[in-house]
Amino acid sequence: MRSFLLFLLFLLAALALLLGPSAYAFYISQGPLPGGVTLAGMPPQGETLEEVARNLYEAFQQPVAVYYDQQRIVLRPSDIGFQVDVNAMVAEAVPLGQGLRFWRPFLGQVLQRPVRPVDVPLKYTLDVPKLAAWFEDVAQRYDQPARPPYSVALAPGTPYTTTFMFQAGKPGLELEPNLSLPYVLDALTSPTDREAHLVLVEVPPPPPSIKELEKLIQRRAQHFPGVVSAWVRPVGGDEEAAVDPEVAFAGMSTMKIPILVELYRSVIDGKPDLETHNLITKTIDLSGNFTANLLLRQIGGGPIGAEWAGADRVTATMQALGLRNTFMATPYDREELPKTYTTPANSRTDVTTDPDKHMQTTAKDIGLLLEWIVQCSQGGGTLLAAFPGELTPDECQQMLDYIGLNKIGLLLERGVPEGTRIVHKHGFVPDSHSDAAVVWGPTGPYVVALFIHKPVWVEWHLSQSIMADVSKAAWDYFTLVANGGQPPGADQETAGSPSSSP
């Protein structure tokens, strides 16, 4: 036993002789905090605890480079109230070097076994409202709003039929603060990697607005040397493209649509007889005024002269439907004018077309009436609600079939691709032209009603070009809607180009 104790003493003395100088060197090399201790991943730097705390504070007050896409933004910790509690971290680190724990790194060197550092985690505070305000400021400065599809502005005189009239929208870019927050905090709490990339979200373009179609029509109207009144709406829709749609115009042959509605409401039950069928065909297909008066005579009760009463009944029905600007004071081609009507449209003083006092309407009134006929044919809408038991969906479909007889390949017809289903009724007097149509387009049926006026005489080429252009613009808009805001591809565009027949 005594020999073992002597051996142990000898061994300790030998270790002291061997390790004593190294232990002393380790002891005097230690700073204010023990070796093997790090502060938020950083080795302590400084000769005193005060210097360690100051250097630690300065390391985490360095600016952070934050990137919004390629845009570099400097974020200073003080801007968002980011503060590191260095005193608490140093106070937590001091006990880690007391007693035998002081020699832990030295023993690791002797045994050639690296000792895992003991890290004091970062202690910090953050002003959350200031950080939220900083994110909001960055978003306001750098977010890129999505751009909806927009209409093409062509040089004056360029036909709309030569190109697709809309451009695709552009996606936007928006900052996502909740997803970006962890990356910003990682940069703020790292002593070395002080860079963060914000999370951005691509925002798809909003759907195309029918107001872009309205802009196209307005631009086209500016190059017509007279008055232009237009109304476009998808059947059953709640948005429209309108350019001065409630200007009083001569009724012209477009008034044969109200005559047809009243004929089916008050005279025809089911299907017309052969004589009435022939009269309707000549009135719509050949735009006959004489046959239109014979239909008015049927509406008025039958005897010669009843066409006057028929005109009154047409007017009364239009007024009952709320189409206050539409009336027939006389049958067609009558010089006498026992009475006329004052309407909101013909009472305007800002614009006039010197409309025929015998019969008048507006683009919006005729457009609405066409829309209601289509809705009636589908089993709903204003006409069935206003006249229960007097009209049926089948009768309204017959009206559309008759209006569809008016095929000329010109005016609004010229603005849609060949083979498109379109029913329309046009009208002419020397100083005014009109055309009102239902087009079964890429998204379903829509209505276009266009009336133009030029004092004394409307030249045919002026009428033809603006009618085709407005119709083409409407077709292109609804094509854009059907494509989710994207213009058609080359093959689609070729297939969708309007007929170029003269």
3D shape: rod-shaped
Q: Quick one: CATH superfamily of the largest domain?
A: DD-peptidase/beta-lactamase superfamily
Q: Indicate the mean pLDDT.
A: 89
Q: Total helix count?
A: 16
Q: Would you report the number of β strands?
A: 19
- Derived from helix and strand composition plus strand pairing, the structural class reads alpha+beta
Spatial strand order of the main sheet: 13-12-19-18-17
Number of domains: 2
Beta-strand content estimate = 15-25%
CATH class of the largest domain, named Alpha Beta
Radius of gyration from the alpha-carbon trace, in angstroms: 42 Å
Sheet having the most strands: 5 strands, antiparallel
Residue runs with pLDDT of under 50 for 5 or more positions: 23-29, 490-502
SSE topology:
Elements: H1 2-29, E1 37-39, H2 49-59, E2 64-68, E3 71-75, E4 83-84, H3 86-93, H4 104-110, E5 118-120, E6 124-125, H5 128-142, E7 150-151, E8 166-167, E9 172-175, H6 177-188, E10 195-197, E11 200-203, H7 210-221, E12 227-234, E13 241-243, E14 249-250, H8 256-266, H9 274-284, H10 289-300, H11 306-320, E15 327-328, E16 359-361, H12 363-377, H13 382-386, H14 393-403, E17 422-429, E18 432-441, E19 444-453, H15 460-482, H16 490-495
Parallel strand pairs: 1-5, 2-10
Antiparallel strand pairs: 2-3, 4-6, 7-8, 9-11, 12-13, 12-19, 14-16, 15-16, 17-18, 18-19
Helix pairs in contact: 2-3, 7-15, 8-10, 8-11, 8-14, 9-10, 10-11, 12-14
